[in-house]
Design a protein that fits this description.
Structural class: alpha+beta
Shape: extended
CATH topology of the largest domain: Trigger factor, domain 2
Radius of gyration: 33 Å
Number of domains: 3
CATH architecture of the largest domain: Orthogonal Bundle
Number of helices: 12
Length: 413
Amino acid sequence: MKNIHEIEIKLEKNEWTKALDTAFLSEQKNAKVDGFRKGKVPRNVYEKHYGKQALYYVAINNELGMLYEKVLKDNKLEPIMDPKIDIVDVDDEKLVVKFTITTKPEVKIKKYKGLGVKKDEVKVTKKEIDEEVDNLRNRYADLVIKDGKIEEKDIAVIDFEGFVDGVAFEGGKGENYSLTIGSNTFIPGFEDQLVGHKAGEEVDVNVTFPEEYHSEELKGKKALFKVMIHEVKTKELPKLDEDFFLDLEMENVKDEESLRSVCEAQIKARKEYEAENKYIDDLLAEVEKNTTVEIPNELTEEEIDRMVSEYAHNLEHQGITLDMFYQFTNSDEQALREQMRNDAMKRVKYRFMLEEIAELEKVEVSDKEVKEEAEKMAKQYNVTKEEFLKHFGGDEALRYDLMMQKVIEIIKE
């Protein structure tokens, strides 16, 4: 790849001797050797006790930063990731280091304007408004005890215990569990077999575990569940009356007509947001078809690291660790990384693609724009500007984000 640069640099005897001397003086302060006071160990004794390699190690660490900066300056390179470092040769006479430096790859874009991509038209149907109103009524519904038979959407309060080949299995038992019929919470076929039964009845439920079930021991196995139905509850939906509208505490909602109007506006806003995101995704996908760029594997791996970290963070909010996730899904880190690979490559490619367009279009973001955006977002999240910037990653991260937004607007035009 043209953007991978392997460069060797050598520290000759004079410079390397000075580096070793400096390393010894810093190490001598804390060196402990029997028969010598701390900080007074002679050089030859230190090297005999600790070995010359110990001094080499310290001196190399001290010099690497300076050597790397020199390589970048002399070769006019702008790296996009940390370099790979190899010690080619080291002894009392010299130090030879090889830096493998990755710079921005060449990006060729044939077309990024006039792409012919259309944004989906947004419409709100009467059925969608009806469903939104029903969802609100369900949210405020009362649960009442039912004497009759279990029907779809009823809630059955049950005890259950599962058996495979007559033996109870781990995790197959529960007491006073509230199961909503039709929620598909349990194994396929379980909920259907409770329909038509009443409170007080004992029911044998026969099911087969799916082949993709997370437990290896239960995949594809036939099971019998002994179920005791304690109670059957049903939802009693509130009437569309004044009390219900007051409970909703929704601005400008005072009757059914105004409720439906507000619901329509909310559905439309949601659909507009989704349509805009899809439109941008479709545009970027179209630009990608017209883009050629070689992505170094190291960058893809780096992006996967970031994605795994994001995924772990999201799982933590649900009280789940990555190890628990691997156990539940019968997978491991390697499987998760492979699953993320294509998206990671796309992310990296999109980043180079948008940066190239920014360069071609000479897109700039002023300090004033960064300041105004930071203040706007801080107000939105009810934090100080400093707190927002710290969380976001600083001025430059926000500047980059604004630049990407400008580039997307150019593509949309």
